[in-house]
Structure prediction request, 157 residues.
Amino acid sequence: MRCPFCSQENSRVIDSRTTDNNRTIRRRRECTSCQKRFTTYEKYEKTPLFVRKSDGDRELFSEEKILSGLYKACEKRPVSHEELENLVQEIKLELLNQMEQEVSSQQIGNLVMKKLKEIDQVAYVRFASVYREFKDVESFKQELDKLLSEEQEAGDV
Prediction:
């Protein structure tokens, strides 16, 4: 890091601390040549996450779009705003940890359903009905039957 005063390349770190919810490191430095002090900040470089839609289009990942769908699914359900925001953050983190720059909308939808099922089953069915585009009552019933059989299996264990 060059000194902003004398342009010397050598400096020593006097103090380091994290800021911005542990996303940034603030370093207090002292130039070894002119002894003047200055501050630098280190941040990790964010690479944008793109979503590949079913029609082939690409768009930037949007937490707001997921949250909007979750609000609709959880309307009049005992699910707090905080739970939904945490769920969106978990989904985003899981997608970023895959180290891919592009994910399919299907991956996101499946992840949302998986996590929503753990929070509220009625909201899960509501979300699934829109996401999977049930064409008739029979396909909706099949999803409910599947959910009920999973519940019974979990209760038997």
In short: The chain has five helices and six strands.
